[in-house]
Amino acid sequence: MRIVLQRTSSASVTVNGEVCGKIGKGYLVLLGIGDGDTEEDCRRLADKILNLRIFADENDKINLSLEQVGGELLIVSQFTLYADCRKGNRPNFIQAAKPDKAEKLYEYFAEYCRSKGKHVETGIFGADMKVELVNDGPFTVVLE
Hints:
3 helices, six-stranded mixed beta sheet, 24% helix, two-stranded antiparallel ribbon, 8 strands, globular, D-tyrosyl-trna(Tyr) Deacylase, Chain: A
């Protein structure tokens, strides 16, 4: 599982001209599911994200979690995080999970975050999505 996490002051995802997910302060989570990933991997990385302290406190020190700032999550499926560009100029995606497995784990990841009391918005799995964000900082973290 690979995640590109961006701290946002706002983010949205649009499909066919319609906004299907929108948040304010929080995280845009670009989520790539690999062939060998499991529900346990989802829980481990979701817990990591939910407890990650990358928001500034009153002293402008990076010290607060999503919970502490009342942040939201926008989770977008991103199989291209598994692009392998080592050979040639056209990436392959052999290590990415097949769509049926990836969709199941993507939905599981979002539901797990909701079960922890978080406001979660999502894109539409497999759709051509347009993602917009205001990256606060900018602050971007890559997790595996």
